[in-house]
Amino acid sequence: MFIEYLIIGVYSISLVLIFLYALAQLNLLFNYIKARKSEDDSEKFDFSNSEEIPFVTIQLPVYNELYVMERLLKNIAKLEYPREKLEIQVLDDSTDESVEITAKLIKEIQKEGLDIQHIRRSNRQGFKAGALKEGLETAKGEFIAIFDADFLPQAEWLYQTVPYFKNDEIGVVQTRWGHINRNYSTLTKIQAFALDAHFTLEQLGRNSKGHFINFNGTAGLWRKECIYDAGNWEGDTLTEDLDLSYRAQLKNWKFKYLVDVETPAELPVVISAARSQQFRWNKGGAENFQKMMKTVITHDKVPFRTKIHSLLHLLNSSMFTCIFLVAILSIPMLYIKNEYAHLKYYFYVMSFFVISSLIFFVCYWHMFKSIYGNGFVKFIKYIGSFFTFFAIAMGFSLHNTIAVLEGHFGKKSEFVRTPKFNISSIKDGWKSNKYIKKKPSISVIIEGLLAIYFVFGMYSAFIVGNQGGDFGLFPFHFMLFIGFGYVFIKSVFSKA
């Protein structure tokens, strides 16, 4: 019985941790609903008075962005702001032919009277963090706006965001990401679904109660003084944005999140790009948990509730490990349940934790209707979106668990950029993109085997016990089969 009890123990702990995370999400939902009903009375700069308009530097950290540089630079050049109080730094670490294209585009924009500089480094030390840090040394702006290469801020973006720095305690203003190719494919739809949850429930839910949030690496502004006071950019984790965000808030800087200011961007359209992005984000989250955990817990000026939300925030990616363990162990648990009758009361208790899924269902519905609208038809569409998202997210659980474990155990890896495609509709092609990873990793083969494993789980529902089977876990195993099967097929046959 030792093995059986070990399986039961690990399975139970994983379910409890998922439940606690679900309760935290429910708390954020209450915060979000309350925040949406309240009016924002933040003090702002009066831009009708030219003396109150501060100098802003826009930083564009880029690396081998052949397909999107023209779109990026032309869009940034359209930003409305007094030219005498604006500079643009193109922090270009590229090693391919995009360097020459970028240089030519910058010269054309300079002729229009815009202060835009092409800044090159001799190495990629510190990757994105290193580029931002080096650019900061010569930045003339009191405030630093940052955009990744696939982001397309609206022309009035600076007028919508900069005024909030009137409050001297504000160190960061972050805006909500939008998605120009949300409906391109199932893959982009589920990515948008996940990101929308983060940029509504989580960011506003935390920020409205003064809990720590993170600058999302792009589509936001920093007060230069805040960056220096927090210790400047560091490249020792794969999510330098999360790292600096926590160091700044631990120094008592306030963050302002603007849920109603949307900054459109392009979602990865092929699964290799989504995988590399997910890997970096999830590993970086675990790295930052290891880096920040002790400081957050022992900090005497951080309220207890903020500490709890901060730890769960930093452990966000680690939930994939719990999900993966529950998935893998669910089939042995099916057999244990039908083999050992004396454990039936334990399984009655464990059935309670299905409430975690119900909590996520309710929370994400509020996110969904805030973006798409309410009504019966929208709700039916939401049900399909939710279960598609849930299944494919579980299909990524092995990949993300590997990333999380590497992060917690300190295995270092290179910062792998997410390739951009300049794709906004189904008519646009991506297969000639030179940055696509051609060969799937060994974990993809394991994901294929896991799809087969969960077929066995569905089959087991018909044969276990002596009461004609046990179908309680059948829907769960079916979703896992769909999720792992989707990830495997897309990874192998899309060659991406």
Task: Give a structural overview.
The protein has helices at residues 2-37, 69-77, 98-110, 127-136, 157-161, 186-207, 224-229, 240-249, 271-298, 304-314, 319-339, 344-350, 355-372, 376-395, 397-408, 442-463, 474-493; strands at 56-62, 86-92, 116-120, 143-146, 170-179, 220-223, 254-265. With 496 residues, the chain is an alpha/beta fold. The chain has one domain (11-35, 142-496). Strand 2 (86-92), helix 3 (98-110) and strand 3 (116-120) form a beta-alpha-beta unit. Helix 9 runs antiparallel to helix 10 (304-314), helix 9 packs across helix 15 (397-408) and helix 13 (355-372) packs across helix 14.
Q: pLDDT average, as an integer?
A: 93
Radius of gyration: 24 Å
How many distinct domains?
Answer: 1
Order of helices and strands: HEHEHEHEHEHEHHEHHHHHHHHH
| Multimerization status | single chain
β-sheet strand percentage: 5-15%
The low-pLDDT segments are: none
Fraction of residues in H or I helices: 40-55%
Main sheet attributes: strand count, strand direction, barrel closure:
7 strands, mixed
Question: What structural class do the secondary elements suggest?
Answer: alpha/beta
Number of strands: 7
Q: How does the overall form come out from the CA principal axes?
A: globular
- N- to C-terminal separation? 44 Å
